[in-house]
Design brief:
Layout: E1 6-11, H1 15-25, E2 32-38, H2 45-51, E3 55-56, H3 59-64, E4 70-73, H4 79-89, E5 93-97, H5 104-115, E6 122-125, H6 132-143, E7 149-156, H7 163-167, H8 182-185, H9 188-198, E8 203-210, E9 219-227, E10 233-239, E11 247-253, E12 256-261, E13 265-271, H10 275-281, H11 284-291, E14 301-307, H12 314-329, H13 340-356, E15 360-361, H14 367-381
Parallel strand pairs: 1-2, 1-4, 2-3, 4-5, 5-6, 7-10
Antiparallel strand pairs: 7-11, 8-9, 8-15, 9-10, 11-12, 12-13, 13-14
Length: 388
């Protein structure tokens, strides 16, 4: 450690890696410094030189150099588990960009390997968990003040991507190179937040469209219906072809409801009693007032609306700061690496359900069937090696 600061090795100096480097160099992560930078493109050395840190084209050489205490992987998705395992195996605290893996088998492998290295910190870069809005909602759901979950829906279609976006590289929007479409690339944060706040679903039935309005082979539209404990249900809708876009999350519980619009405005309705109690105790005069629009809603509920601001870069900086605090002071992790499998498994289950036309168990997810179906699609592409 350098002056009680973690020396971070950044693997991949693209958009994400470059952003993290700027945040650290700009003092937004006070307990961390850039230890070294690695990228397969030699021309990225110029950027490393600007930061005054060593540059490597081989991440294994960087790990062995003694210049870094921890690594973050900002590389194509399939590489996260491989690099994560290597880093942990060689004494590195390891922070993986989302998703932890493209499929549950590789996600589970890196998570299980991390469990054999209890002295090393292992996390996943779910920066949305630091968003004050979602932190507050998580606290409300955990407190139980709204009672048990009944239904939740998230329409998140603010991912509009034009065709040139997909044409910019050979691996983009492929099964063998990226491992999927909107579920793997754009929506992992929402899949994580949804389960973080509402609980991990038990099963899913999904309809996905592949190359629906884009010239790609992976999913560009998804409609999924999930089942939770105690009969609660949920719907998740996302796509990359909705130019106006919608971002609306609803969480209905026994004693109230949460509505989030555009990830910055929250309306919380709290019922005076459990909804079933209100239903059972309502007399016919109140029912008549309800049907004629004369019932005073304030007798049944209160409503609170909160608007949240946004500080660009703060969420990513907070994840890095927390990761360094874990290493230096054994702080509580914002997003343990083990949590990373939940979003991967739900995305895999949505794919598998849409491929088979069947409801798919998440409690007992069939990894082998998923891998067979995935490899069929990789083979059809004819550009990438099949996965194991």
């Amino acid at each position: 450690m350098a002056e009680d600061k973690v020396r971070l090795g950044i693997i991949g100096l693209g958009a994400e890696g470059g952003m993290y480097a700027k945040f650290i160099d700009g003092g937004m992560v006070p307990n961390m410094v850039i230890g070294a930078i690695c990228d397969i493109l030699p021309e990225k050395k110029e950027a490393a030189d600007e930061y005054g840190v060593p540059f490597y084209t081989d991440y294994k050489e960087m790990i062995a150099s003694g210049n870094v205490d921890a690594i973050v992987t900002t590389v194509p998705h399939y590489l996260h588990p491989e690099m994560g395992i290597y880093g942990l195996e060689h004494g590195m605290h390891t922070l993986l960009e989302k998703p932890v893996g493209v499929y549950t088998k590789q996600a589970r492998e890196v998570i299980e390997f991390a469990e054999t290295k209890p002295d090393l910190k292992f996390g996943v870069f779910f920066n949305q968990r630091t968003n004050p809005l979602y932190k507050d909602l998580k606290a409300i759901m955990d407190s139980g003040e709204l009672g048990k979950l009944r239904h939740t829906s998230w329409i998140i279609t603010t991912w509009w991507r034009p065709q040139p976006y997909y044409a910019q590289s050979d691996w983009r929007a492929t099964w063998g190179g990226e491992g999927g479409g909107v579920l793997v690339n754009q929506a992992p944060h929402q899949l994580d937040l949804w389960q973080w706040m509402c609980g991990v679903p038990k099963s899913v039935f999904a309809k996905a469209q592949y190359g629906f309005r884009r010239d790609i082979v992976v999913e560009d539209e998804v409609n999924a219906l999930v089942s939770f404990e105690d009969g609660a249900t949920g719907t998740f809708i996302t796509c990359t072809h909705d130019l106006p876009g919608t971002d609306r999350l609803e969480i209905l519980c026994d004693k109230g409801k949460i509505v989030v619009e555009n990830s910055n405005k929250v309306t919380i309705t709290r019922l005076k009693e459990d909804e079933q109690v209100l239903s059972q105790n309502m007399d016919m005069s109140a029912v008549a007032a309800l049907f004629t629009g004369k019932l005073d809603r304030a007798e049944l509920m209160t409503e609170e609306t909160i608007e949240y601001g946004s500080v660009w870069g703060q969420q990513h900086s907070d994840v890095l700061k927390n990761f360094a605090d874990q290493i230096l002071h054994d702080a509580e992790p914002l997003a343990p690496g083990s949590d990373g499998i939940h979003g991967v498994r739900l995305a895999n289950a949505i794919h598998l359900s849409s491929w088979t036309g069947q409801e798919v168990s998440i409690d007992d997810f069939d990894e082998e069937t998923y891998m067979r179906e995935l490899n069929k699609r990789i083979a059809d592409e004819g550009k990438f090696e099949q996965r194991s």
